[in-house]
Amino acid sequence: MAVRATHVFRWDLDKTYLRTEFDTLGDLVRSAMETAQDKQAYPGATALLRSLRQSQEHRICIISGSPAQMRQVLAAKLALDGVEYDEFVLKNNLRNLARLRFRALRAQVPYKLPALLESRSGLLGTPPETLFGDDAEADAIIYCLYADILAGLVSMNELGRVLEAARAYEDQAERTLALAERVRRGDAVRRILIHLDRRSPTAGFRQFGPRLVPIFNYFQAALVLFEDRVLSAQQILFVAREMLTSSEHTIPTLANSLQDLLRRGRVSRACADGLTAEIQTAAAGAADDEGHRLAEGVAAAFADRIRQLGGATQEHPAENPRLDYVAMVDREFHHRRAKPRRPLRR
Amino acid sequence: MGGDQAPDEIVKGAAEASLGLKEAELILVGDAARIGRILPQVRHDGGRVRVHHAPSVIAMDEKPSEAIAAKPDSSIAVAAELVATGEGDALVSAGNTGACVLACARRWKLLPGVRRSALAAVYPTELRRGEKNDPFSLILDVGATIEAGADDLVAFALMGAAYAKIVSKNARPRVALLSNGTEAGKGPKAVVEAHALLLEATDINFIGNVEGLDIPRGVADVIVCSGYVGNVVVKMLEGVAETVVGLARYAYKEKLLWRAALMMLSSGIQRLKEVTDWEQYGGAPLLGFENLFIKAHGRSGARALSNAIRVADKALRSDLCGAIASGLESFQTRTGTRAVSPA
């Protein structure tokens, strides 16, 4: 049965929501052995997901490349964090192993793209989507490809060539093409947020256009979603409060995160000024001293950073460019194969 | 944002440092638009870096006093002001040395007991020192104060010793006065008096006087002199190094046999280059103020700048200025002198 949603948020798990290391075999084993309590979410990710969930009509879908055998522990982790979701898709790598499909074990495009399309097929209408991924795998390419398929910008012929470049098995390619053909068209993907787990240079993502925003932390994700009118100033403060409980963040680092988005032209000056004013208002009406101090501190730091920038922001192309997915996917495939493995760490 | 390779290499160095220093916040002071174009090209942590716009910059060849007066909105002036107001904790620059020293001197307070600041330089030596097997000795002052009295030289010695202890992890650095003979009575009056004071009224490991030829040997870990002498010494040492390289180049071109000999030595020369690579040290401090300034070499690339930032971070974490202040206080207690006002 088709489901109704006013906005769909799709999340990856490893390196996007969860702090996971899987660069070496040792990392993989360690990650597989971790309990729900051991697993750590990135600061602010939980608060952001919970803020997004505050609207009943918002749909949270998790699509991860983690093996299906980890469902129990991952679901337990999400429950521990108080994160509710509507869909939770994991990769059945045991089946891939049983069928001797070794290429499929690490392949991203032939797994994630049909999973996204299948999930989309189950929705009523053409609700907007916001996608969360990371810079460790091919999330940026897959999400843009998915967005362009929905927008009707990728022909079936081109998609066939993309799947070929991704070295998809025949049945995977057939299934993906069938799903793409029947999915309802519409320019639905409003925003793609890529968590820079590897701190990749942000300039490398400019090719994907203004729809995709690389983020250093989840406060930046919240700020972008404020600009997109998905989150309120109060929800920004909710995310800030969670981030400040971690040792990694302070009010200055949050304010720097805003300045970084301003510099990159990913948040407008008007939006930053508006948010600062709203947070100042929130400070005046805060229910407790702690809330008042937080809002006041954040507003003051924001105003400082905006002023210190002296009006210097970068222009960003207004249009999403046409991307050569075949070449991108092919490059990604070769890059993944060539990636040197780090030695096992003790 | 000064330096021969600014702003590109400076921004890249800061970006690199932002990834390694998990608790530090880096404020890049300079042309915000230019910095904003460089940062996205390199790996960094956007939450740990902020940009503070300063519209002008003092060039390496500008006359410091005139430039500082004419450009109150230069990156070095703005950065020094940010530290003075507590917005920043330390300043790192690869820019015009004179302008840097002037900018700090005009805005920062001297530590109690310090009449004049001292700019240090590092020099590779034969002998190594400290926990890190550091090949660099510290020479101060190399130009911040042209004339120094005995009290100033003692203060420089205490400051240099504290710095070597913290940054080079040298538990008991050997401190010496630079003079024209090793005997206690050799040298100008200020040096002779400082010699006596250092022996009698300080706890530092004072080894007496050293001569110029002892500097490259590494006999002392901290070499103290007036700014006039120090500046002449470091420039002469740089000149000698350049001449040696020039001679080697000449030999390489001149005779096949000499070229072959140099090639046979190449791995050794390379090793020597690695050992004495100043980029690994990053920079040297301006000491005597309540705030910290690390002067990176004018030719600094990203690596040197990143290391200079690490040095500043380390010095801040170890409360270098506090350690210097307590050393000076204990000296004053012993000699019965009171805190002197700046000259």
Please characterize this protein's 3D structure:
- The complex is a heterodimer of chains A (346) and B (343).
- Chain A has 15 helices and 6 strands.
- In chain A, strands 3-2-1-4-5-6 form a 6-stranded parallel beta sheet, with helices on both faces.
- In chain A, strand 2, helix 3 and strand 3 form a beta-alpha-beta unit.
- In chain A, helix 10 packs antiparallel against helix 11 and helix 12 packs parallel to helix 14.
- The longest helix of chain A has 20 residues.
- With 343 residues, chain B is α/β, with parallel strands linked by helices.
- Chain B contains 13 helices and 10 strands.
- In chain B, the strands form 2 sheets. Chain B has an 8-stranded mixed beta sheet with strand order 3-10-9-4-5-8-6-7, sandwiched between helices. In chain B, strands 1-2 form a two-stranded parallel ribbon.
- In chain B, helix 1 packs across helix 12 and helix 3 packs across helix 5.
- The longest helix of chain B is centred in the C-terminal third of the chain and has 28 residues.
- The radius of gyration of chain B is 20 Å and the shape is globular.
- The two termini of chain B are 30 Å apart.
- The relative contact order of chain B is 0.16.
- At the A-B interface, helix 12 of A face helix 2 and strand 2 of B.
